[in-house]
Design a protein that fits this description.
Length: 279
């Protein structure tokens, strides 16, 4: 067997394998997948418009201008920042396949992403706690300084979220030698575990606890009202309608006949006064 032919066959097979491998590689950087652009833009617009609508409703409607709705406004602001800034930058990153905005913008984008998501989680927990206080401890909830307490809660949520994420992200991005066209945050695995427990899983557990207590408090109040013999609401079964009968004192039941008699008396007295004036 000719060794030259064997060597040439080996080289040709290797070149064919390289062609096969290279054909499965991802598209080169700079190729923009424009087909996914419209749904991504629609998602960003929907997120922004939904949160702007929430804030406008609370601002325009006077009945919604309550202290507890400050939680909702602050949550809408955080979500609006996610939609307008974080998601918009993510569209750029996704379309280009690399980060084209530089290292400083990458640090700001990653920080804003984690901060806003943490703020949203903490606000959902605060809203659950506020509803729990209103249902289970209504007398304690009617505090004249309730608005100041809510403002303090909101301020602490923003401050804690910023302090939790800004230092580690800046430290991670400044100490490592990372390419400017890539943008990610990968801290220590133990730090990730602790942050996940404190920032995500703990608020979820607290929300679950507060809403379970709310349901339990509502059930207890319903049982108390039912035990006091309060009249039931009208109920409809089939074509027959049954309603609770409310007993009204007879002296408070003005009939149409009594009203008519009163009107005739007033009219008669008015006519007599007119005749006396002419006389």
């Amino acid at each position: 067997m000719d060794p030259t032919a064997t060597d040439s066959n080996y080289k040709s097979s290797k070149m064919a394998a390289n062609v096969t491998v290279n054909s499965t590689e991802p598209p080169a950087r700079g190729e923009l997948p424009w087909l996914i652009l419209p749904p991504l833009i629609a998602l960003v617009l929907f997120t922004c418009l939904a949160n702007i609508t929430v804030m406008l409703c609370i601002y325009v409607e006077k009945n919604l201008r309550k202290a507890n709705n400050l939680y909702v406004v602050s949550l809408a602001v955080a979500d609006l920042m996610v939609g307008s800034l974080v998601m918009s930058a993510m569209i750029t990153y996704t379309l280009y396949g690399y980060w084209p905005l530089g290292a400083a913008m990458c640090t700001g984008w990653v920080s804003l992403d984690f901060i806003c998501c943490t703020i949203s989680m903490m606000h959902l927990c605060l809203i659950a706690h506020d509803r729990y206080q209103a249902l289970v401890h209504p007398l304690k909830y009617r505090n004249p300084k309730r608005k100041q307490i809510i403002i303090i809660h909101i301020s602490l949520a923003w401050i804690v979220s910023i302090l939790v994420w800004i230092p580690p992200i800046i430290g991670f991005r400044s100490t490592g030698n990372y390419p400017e066209d890539d943008c990610y945050y990968m801290p220590n695995k133990y730090y990730i575990l602790i942050q996940s427990l404190l920032v995500y899983y703990l608020p979820i557990a607290l929300m679950t606890f507060f809403y379970v207590k709310c349901l339990s408090g509502l059930q207890k109040q319903y049982k108390k009202i039912h035990a006091m013999g309060a009249p039931a609401l009208p109920s409809v079964s089939g074509n027959a309608t049954t309603a609770a009968t409310l007993k009204v004192p007879t002296e408070l039941e003005p009939t149409s006949q009594a009203i008519a008699e009163g009107e005739s008396t007033v009219a008669a007295s008015g006519r007599s006064q007119t005749v006396q004036k002419f006389l």
